[in-house]
Amino acid sequence: MFKLTSSISKLSLLACFAFLFSFVALAQDKTPLSPPANASAKIGAATVTVDYSSPGVKGRTIGKEIAPYGQVWRTGANAATKITFSKDVTLEGKPVKAGTYSLFTVPNQNEWVIILNKTAEQWGAFKYEEAQDLLRVTVKPTTSKENNERFKIAISEKGKNAGVMTLLWGNISVPVTVKAAQNTASM
Hints:
Helix content: 10-25%
Strand order of the largest sheet: 1-2-3-6-7-8
Number of strands: 10
Structural class: mainly beta
Largest sheet: 6 strands, antiparallel
Distance between the termini: 86 Å
């Protein structure tokens, strides 16, 4: 009788471990809905790095169900997107000191407002404060050559001291000009 009870206890314990292990294994295989992503490039002497989460369109309409037109958007998912400039730059001709900022946008059909906010560590746009904006610039979206299911930010050089940061999602492409500061003493 004792051996039978002992065997049943061991089997029960083994079954519990197998059950728990299967949950741990499944949890580790699950890809986040909006996986983390980053983009980085040298623009002149400055390194520009963007850390963001990459949501999917998933059949929704950009400007309506996701990233609604006319509303401040975190420019990605989860925590607010962070952009770091290792040296002073200009963004669409406006001076930006070296540092880390949060990147927000206000999408619209014919123009997007690009916002650098001084509060780099934020969750989404829930506590966004316009009073903390470093700058706002307006850019024109274009139609992307490819359809991007996942939101993506690309940074590319365009000449010796200039580059473009492009926000890509669905069939939308939003180019933002970045230039290395020529005279950092005047900034």
